[in-house]
Amino acid sequence: MGHNKILEVEDIIKIYGRGENRTEALKGISFDVLEGEFLGIMGPSGSGKTTLLNSIATMIRVTSGKIRLKGEDICAFKGKEISSYRGKAIGYLFQEFELLDNLTARENIILPLALHGMTGSEAEGMLKKLAWHFGIEEVLDKFPSQMSGGQKQRVAAVRALIGEPGIVLADEPTGALDSRNSKVLMDRLSAVNKEEGKTIVMVTHDANAASYCSRILFIQDGRLFHELRRNVQTETTEGFYERIVTVLSQLGGGSANVL
Q: Which candidate, 91, 55, 94, 68, places its Cα nearest to that of 204?
């Protein structure tokens, strides 16, 4: 893991509405993400974790504060800069896959690249490597309707990674998957993080998925509540899982509210 800060989130506040309808979704959150980290973000519903992820993705404009990716303040981006940032600097993995039904897996993966000027041969080389990594070679020429949920999510993961983004943002990537497919996806994402040094920031409510992370931020009521770091040398995912569950039980009045 590098010691370079790839992402710096500085005192971000997000307010929705005015007057009596005013809601403070983020109340001054600050943290850094180092290159090659696998960061998890957890917290009860309504804690602000998705707002936080969407702010980093430039889908939401923060009310105040700064978000820097590789030193550039993305909150200051306008128009073209935003679309180029979304296309090149970040990869986004949604819970609902967001694949286009009338395109094959290969087309779903390669299409976004054409918009951002990656050439065919470059794209094919990357596709080969990632398709192998995620075990989707056999579905490349199939349409989403012909794939299982697990396959769709792995196709979506390849699509998020193929443009060589500096950072991958994942929003509840195991949310629609059963435990076996969740494990396959997390194993593959973890391998890409370890072997390729990909930086991943993942919002999740799933303690199993979170146990693959190297560090977890727990958010409650728009504030940072707690942080856990996994001792990557000595701690197993099982051991980290136990620590995660303990913190979750203290969050939002017991684990029943964490989902």
A: 94
The domain segmentation of the chain, as residue ranges, is: 5-257
What's at 61, amino acid-wise?
Answer: R
| Region for residue 37 given its phi and psi (left: phi exceeds 0; alpha: psi -120 to 50; beta: otherwise) | beta
Helix axes 120-134, 179-196, angle to 10 degrees: 130
Cβ proximity of 189 and 160 under 8 Å: no
Residues 172-210 have pLDDT tens digits of 999 989 999 999 999 999 999 999 899 999 999 999 999
Mean pLDDT in consecutive groups of 10 residues from the start of the chain, 259 residues? 85 94 94 96 91 92 94 87 82 83 93 74 87 95 95 94 91 92 94 93 95 96 94 90 93 52
**Third-level CATH fold of 5-257:** Rossmann fold (3.40.50)
How many degrees, rounded to 5, is the angle at CA 67 between CA 4 and CA 161?
Answer: 65
